[in-house]
Batch of 2 targets.
Target 1
Amino acid sequence: MVASRIQIGLVAAVLILFGLGLTLYKTARLGLPLLPGESREVWTIESKVSFKPAAGPVDVALQLPQALGGWVLLDEHFASSGFGFTVEDSGGRPRANWTRQTLDHPTTLYYKIQAYRANRDGLPGFPVAVADKPRLEADQLTAMERLVEVLQETSTGPGSMARLMIQHLNREEAGPDAAFLLDSYGGSRESLMLDVLAFADIPAHRVQGIRLQDGRRRQTLSVLIEIHDGSDWQLLDPDTGEVGLPDDFFVWQRGPGTILRVVGGRDSSLEFALVNNSLPAKTVVTMEQQSDQFALLDFSIYALPVEQQGIFKGLLLVPVATFVVVILRILVGLKTSGTFMPVLIAIAFIQTTLWVGLAIFLSLVGVGLWIRSWLSHLNLLLVARVSAVVIVVILLMAVLAVVSYKLGLDQALTVTFFPAIILSWTVERMSILWEEEGGHEVLIQGTGSLIVAVLAYLVMSIPVVEHLTFNFPELLLSLLGVVLLFGKYTGYRLSELYRFREMVKQQ
Amino acid sequence: MIQLISPRKLRKLGILGMNRRNVGYIGRYNPRGYYRLVDNKLHTKTAALERGIPTPEMYGVIEYQFQVAPMVEALFERDSFVIKPVQGSGGKGILVITGRDGDHFVKSSGAVVDADALRRHASNILAGLHSLGGRNDQAMIEALLDFDPMMARYSHEGVPDIRVIVYRGVPVMAMIRCATHASDGKANLHQGAVGVGIDIGSGRPVAAVQQGRLVTHHPDTGASFDDLQLPYWQQILELAAGCAEMCGLGYLGADIVLDRQQGPMLLELNARPGLSIQVANQEGLIGRLKIADEIADEFDTDAERIARARERFSVGRMVPLAEQAAAL
């Protein structure tokens, strides 16, 4: 006993000190800040070029972004296993080239950048040129002339005409000319818009880029339309008609030209995975400058592909949640239904936000319990009964999602983030508890579980906690040490101080 | 404001807490591999039979669903019996039939049920409704004990059983759990049953506690606990110590019942006995466990250990915990 205590104490001390030491080293020597502090939104954008091989040599060209609108590129990284690789400058624009003589299997090429927006600049100047008038069929031409005439009559200048055009072409009930043109353009609204603008002698081109959404795995390119209103360039959103560069838009290419060209391949696609880290820009700069010198940094979470980084961002928070469970069970003595069920609920809360999550959870479990009480009359075998509950719970989730969507409550759509199996087991356990111990015990354990889940959620959503676990994963070793110590804690629980209080009352 | 007791006071009173029980005693003295014998009442019974430890007579086991109907059919031959889950915990799922009313069965509460109810109860047990973690289970049918009349006076409906905590072969603390109307015939102290602490030395009651309050009489039957004198006390202690040796657990709760004809019988074993026995005895366990350590180190045989325990744990005059705490 004593020996094992000392052993655990030693192991725990080593773990705690190692974790803290590494953290201190990283802060002191490498300049990684301990607190999130003044942070920059650093985006990691990973582009994936996938294609299947066709006959002959393969030549893939990817136009690289130019960092416009105040964006600063911190780092570029190419993955090109087995391919010849060059970066060329074609007319002031960098272009990546992957080449290979033969290829026999589907391939994905990666290009990763880290970027942040240093200041919210507009786009710089650009040579003004009106595109050539499009060549059109006779009937298209008439429709185009009529459309442009209408637009010009009802607008005051190039800017207002462009906005009017966007509104016009986005309407459900577009006029006959617009509808016909849209139809003959095969639905490519942006090409039609550019042609209309060219027809009206307004200088315009497309701007391609990415809508930045944290955690998106398969984002594709979006398009903005830029027009010259006589004095300045103006950006327009072809869907909403909004003016200006949206905050969440990362410009990849301005002006005509394709971004991806694949020769010798088919079914090619370009997708982006995005992760946003709120980091002091200094951190990232430090990392970029020093990652070659310090292997430690090269082996940090940042070295992983973006998708995995996103997953780890959530995963590294789980130990913190389990730590909350340890404290509440061992120190406080809260009764929960299932040891780590509250952690899973807390993770779901992160996706749904707290109040919405609580409401969804309570309504699902409530209705589930009600239906389960009916099932218990049927005297079913256990596995069949639990499966029945799983099916019922999933149907309830679907009903909840559909009904709330129809009612305009989009938040309830996040119901899908609740793990259905966990919900079903919760319902099952609670209902057995109800039959055996009565509603009182259900209330105690249910409340206990929710308290633990809510606390775990609150702790996980503290920015500092996320910052620390992601940037200093070695702190988890310290956490492990503390958990080991708790495993040997023999003191009283808070609940016991309450339970035994009656005994010492004078009667 | 919620009133709490200070942890310092609890420690001075020697009250054993859940964490210390789990780490210091269960985790240390109860090897995981031996739990099977305790958690499964059939295994317990078989092992007890081999060692000559008396247990209630077994009428049969229902292992599969198809056996339910013939087994219930066979029960028409019997006047009284008990159906319980083999892996049940905390007295859950125990159906006690005390008599017959034509083709119907009379439960201990007096309610009359038909054969359908028995079949349903048996299927529920098989499906794991009452078992640890909801695992599939078996149902066992045992003879109903002919309670010692001495004990019957102290119980309302349910089964009055004697819980003895045995630590390293030394009986350290004992109590009787008396079901009451408030506890709905169940023997759980937190549900309102009366816990009667029993003096290890004499087999006489030390104190009786209901919901944390000292009582002198059973609230339903009106029997005075002062008149309680457990017969066969030495045998009860020997039986409990024998069980500890049988199952290999160093920290064990043995539940024993008294039969009118055959004396003490083992009902079931518990590898994680609860802490409320301390309240029933108005004494903390920690001090006794320390003394038991000395006894276990000093003596090797059960007989010597029991004799020494009866000597050391004899309570002359019970001092309520409240007074003990006030004196601190």
Target 2
Amino acid sequence: MADKQATVYVIDLAASMGLRNNARHETDLEYTQRYLWDRITTTVSNGRKTDVIAVVGFRTDASDNSLVQSDASYENICVLSPMSQFLMPQIRSLQNLLHPSHTEEGDGISAIVVAMDLIEKFCKKLKYIRNIVFLTNGNGMYELDGLDDITKQIKDQDIKLTILGVDFDDVEFGFLEAGKSPQKGQNETALKRFCEDCGGIFGTIAEAIEEIQRPRIKRTRPVASFKGHLIIGDDSGTSNSTLVIDIERYPRTMVAKPPSASSFAVPTQETSNSDTLQKIRSTRTYQVEDDNAPGKSIDIERDDMAKGYLYGRTIVPISAEDQEVVKFETTASLQIIGFIPRAGLDRPLSQSNSNILVASKTNDKAILALSSFIHALYELDSLAIGRLVTKDDRPPVVVAMAPIIEPEYECLVDVQLPFAEDIRQYKFAPLDIIKTATGRLMNKHRFIPSEDLQEAMNDYVDAMDVTSLEGLNDPSIPFAQPDDIFSPLLHRIQQVIRARATAPDESTLPDINPVLVSYSMSPSVLEGEEELARLKQVADVRLVPTKAKGRKISREKPLSGLDVAKLLEERTKAQRIHMDNPVPEFRQMIGSVQQERDIQPLVKQMGDIIKSIIQQSVADLQYGQAVECLKVLREECLNLEVFELYDSFIKELKSSLEGDRRDFWSRVRKEKLGLVLPSEDERSTVTPEDSSRFYYSR
Amino acid sequence: MSADKKWESNPDAGDGDDDDDNRDETEYLSQRDATLFAIEISNSMVAPPDEEDDSMDIDGGKKKKNKKPRYSNAESALRCAEAVLKNRIISNPSDMMGILLFGTEQTKYADGNTSSYPNCFLLMDLDIPDAAGIKELKYLLDNPDELSELLKPSEKPAAMASVFFAANHLFTTKAANFNSRRLFIITDNDNPETDKKARTSAQTRAKDLYDLGVRIEPFFISTPSHEFDKSLFYADVMYDTGDEPDTLLDSDGDAGKPTDAESRYDQMLSAITAKQAPRRALFSIKMEVGKGLVIGIKGYLLYKRVEPSRSHYIHERGEKLQIVKGTTTRMVEETAQEVAPAQIRKAFKFGGETVSFSDEEMKKIRNFGDPVLRIIGFKPQTELQFWHNMRPSIFIHPSEEDYTGSTRVFAALWNKLLNSKLMGIAWFIPRRNAAPVMTAVWPSSEPQGLFLITLPFADDIRQNPEVPHIVAPNHLIDRMQDVIRQLHMPRGYIPEKYPNPALQKHYKVLEAIALEEELPDKFEDKTLPKYKNIEKHAGRLLEDWGEALEQSMAELRLSRPQIEVHGTKRGREPAGGTAKKIKKEVDDGPGDMDAEIRAAYDKNALSKLTVAVLKDWLGNKGLSATGKKAELVERVEEYFENK
């Protein structure tokens, strides 16, 4: 968790803030608010109670602050929002208060004093990061007498002052306002000096707005995932030569998850007349099947349940005593199994996020010892392999450790490796040679690149080298370095939540921040067009028409190339599907159909078979088989673009299901085997409502 | 995963927070597989191993070192089937398996139907196996007389058409809607049907299996005197399943080599276990090699942490054991009224209230374009840091299904990356509305193809914790190098050498309880360091290093006396070096603390201790040190109560 923080936003609400300047469509106040709301909502979305905000307006029509009673120079200054954690009510109330006033009266410097007062009263002597953010258009009068005193106080209280102005000049940013009023020019100069004296940040608001486009990264305080010993040798106490180093392990990478949505209930009209979402509580009940009970199941009390596992169909209860036997006992530690050359680890074997290992901070001897370990690994270009148990009785994992040596920092970094069981023994065809059905090896084949193709690919890859490019978001970082790439979903969701929270009536979603997708395309500076054109030409890749795909299956020949279709002719000519082999025969006959009018009788036959499987089923035992036939029927009807036949069959099937057999319909619904939707065949006119009514109605 | 969560039979039953990032993987795992072993029984299959090819003895005199029992081919096959059964029954308890013998004198089929499939013996019906079935099989394998009675070959071999049709019937009736259905044929007979009519019949029945979605996975046995010739019969009944051009061509790889009988069992076992899990693609998407140059690829997970199987709640009080089903009811918290599914809306918490979007909007928000692997440039492989890793890599291989020419373009890219030691950088959306990630496209020579290594985002990178920077002097580093050289494993990390000990124990205990066998009293843990070897090869050197460390510490104290101050903070200086002396120090710190805490516990004054002390102590005991003070105190009390 980050440190406690108190921030006061001081915002200029003069009548002149309501004007539009520099050809902007927004008023100065609207323009300024872009920055203000971004900052505030970022704080809100962190959801920290210890991150408090206050807002002070100046050049307001009214005066509302604790200093004005005794001193008239604090007039036209309002505390719009007292110091507190900002939540939705504060956001809404502030939104209603941010309007340009009808006056230019009111002193910005006094407003800063009000802000300092708010901070002092709230934070007292406690440890807070104190910020004042001052936003103005720089017009009006600034009372500059006694500024030195204020500067001293700001420094004493360690307040970070930021002053941002609408259309302030900034040579570095490259902005100079044309036709600036002398008054504003003077104010700018004075504020700049004041800010510099306080050690604060001074700038033009355009730059700040540009900066907030860059997503902010939420810092997480490092939390150790393991504290214990790195051990070489036997540490059970029997050996005299065991190396033991106090270490701590912290995440180096960890997925930053986007905010997750929770389920809420939309109030029904009877229960509530407000439309705020209601919290949901889940309760869990437990049942077992019991044919004699009403509803065929009985509720079970938690105490009547034991824990256990499935051994195939066999249920294996594990008693409390057995629990102890099942447990794999371990002791928390990181034991070194051995060392391997760096090249001895296939990179794709890395399984997990990475963690860094450092010596215990307070133990110089351990730091020294680990340093020798890190440097020795580095010099031998090796990795350490270890068995890590992060807590007693946790299952062990095997990790690989590599040294990292930076100018002022050194550590080990580990990733988890797979166990024997974690490897799936899939086999894949080689890419450099083709083995034919008869076992002949070939190195010229349509699957193997020709020399031309290889050459074109080599040239293209070389042309697309991005090694020397700058980062797209931060030019000081190399191209596509992880530090330069932001998690698109994380920031997108945060963006839309904040937008919706501050403008709940807005029905459209804000455009995606281009920074988030900057790495979704090749950078335009690369010049690989010629090479790519040539590569495309020699590669000669062709799209397989969708129709050809569907028909393939029934025409397939065995490895030998034997013409099975011919052997099947006798069968397919008969046009009679056998009850004991429906799926293959239906497929084969559909595949051999020559005229469209031959399709309908086959669909009819298959339909009859499905109905009779359902009728003859012992309870629901054969339903699975019927579902499979139905699936195939549907698939083939879609392939042959005769979905009407399927639709009329499934309607007929539904109405034919009576009495006991009605439960089959839930299978149809579950497998989504109902009416064909326009997404499956564009000629369909079935709406989602039609489809749903068909599934659920009787 | 916490112990509580492990017992929770429905992981969705939490507070309703959704996290669908792993959805794809669970869907992928929920696909069920049905495997039927079909084992040919013939004179050569059941022949005792000693009677065949004595030539091996002349070559190498193998008999001397062979202590393993030797099995006939048929028995080897049965034992392989048993091994696979016992493994998969635990790791995939919902998969189906069955064993069909063909060419037996006896005939047996499901429902007592013996006329349709003569000389086929259904030893184990295609179903989710149970303990009783496995015990039966074990009993058979332990009783040679009964086994040989069963394995008696018929005079006339079984018709292959019947075998295929029997399999067809089993898969159709028992394993309807299974995504994966496979027929493992184990045989040494490469030309079973010489009669034309019988042959045609077998060929059409094989086509039926193909159209039914059943894949034939053959394990052919060759002997030195007879090499299995696939082209005689099997090439007419096996199909190239399109996306896997190699499976069939290579599947006879290991078992197909002419081998002597004694190593055959091992080879058969490794060939069959390699195939025990069906290969399934994780996704099938487009790969954009360059703008407008699109090919088809499929992704596979080659590495995936295997966890012990899920536990269930069980009802023991009824007549028989039953699995308890849990149902979640959702209610409005205030009114306790049940919530209908249509009433549920997803919302984000923000500023103490909720911000919600319609489903349509959520889809739009999550949508960053169609699924694609788009290469945006290339970099040297050295640019990928060791710590640039988030999760297991994904293997990709070309597919001609949607784009012809995909394979050659993919191969050309692979060649170039491998030869020039380059990697691609790509924008990757594995499926519709999945969160996009950046990935390194990494060439691999075994297996041949490309791996996708997910890169961390800037948001995923954590800051380093602060640690004083003290660099070891060269002489200390040199001593450590001596140690490392002695403990070097030059062949690198070979995962096959390290079975997961916790998982293996789980398997063994569960199996022993299910089959009512003795619990094994010792479990082998190959991940434990080989202490004796370490002592033997590096013991002396570790002591040298320990001495060098003491010396370096002394030097350090002289040059920077101030560090002593924070070095001894809180009295836990321990563990810098070797040898017992230092180890004793390790125990000192917590020891004192133990006494203090114990005293507080006895006086019922734990709550008077500070949170820091409690946390420290809990941490040292390897217990969780999070939570409020009351929880910490409770945890400490628990510890002493159970002591």
